[in-house]
Design goal:
Length: about 260
Amino acid sequence: MKHARMRYQERATYCKNPLAKNLFLLLDDKKTNLALSADVTTADALLKLAEETGPDICVFKTHIDIIEDFHPDLTHELQAIAKKHRFYLFEDRKFADIGNTVKHQYEGGIYRIADWADIINAHSLPGPGIIAGLAEAGLKKQRGLLMLAEMSSENNLFNADYTERTLRMAEAHPEFVIGYISQQKLSNEPQWLYMTPGIQLTAGTDALGQQYNTPESAILEKGTDIIIVGRGIVKATDPKTTAQKYRAAGWEAYEKALSECS
Ligand code: S5P
């Protein structure tokens, strides 16, 4: 199925959240719609990946709580690399509690996520209080939130009604919500950003229910904006060269989508 396609930079003009606007602009400027999912377990490995892949990515996604030797300097170092290579930091924390609790989890504890992560994500399951709680901590720091509208794993409990209600919740907070983690484009409003995990160069599955589609399937056929790639790059013998391959595949799919709609 084809989707009418607008350039990322034009989409930026519709955003109410400054970070979303800058991210859309960065995509066209840097010519990459690749997000790296840096699922490694040591600080050194995380920093090495950020340095190596930095020139080819728009977003560096972390699971900061899987780092065995976490220390607060790590996030400062990550921020410096992000600034040098021009990418955004996304902590994939998938918040899922009441507003008051998620606010503490976002701002406080050991990780102080709000201090360094440009982007975070959350489940809509607890209701709109989760967005309000996160916004209290994130808005003043010009952060952005992605809502989980769909997941890539097989037999998950998401359904069309849940996804639809997630959209309604997000639409009530356009100043803080920048878009969705989803497998497809979900709305005709151009301001929403779609980031899609479960991507490898060949479609397939892993042993624990992860389902993979190709960059072309996500960007061209399903109309999403950014591909999130983890093991496809991280476990490759040469992550830097492999990131360049994914970058090329994601960008080619975007250019093809634009040309098919012009
Ligand atoms: O639906 C989802 C949402 C997310 S954020 N499915 C996912 O796989 N993710 C995350 O994307 C997951 O937590 C992991 O960090 C990454 C996918 O990694 P890969 O190694 O399977 O590419």
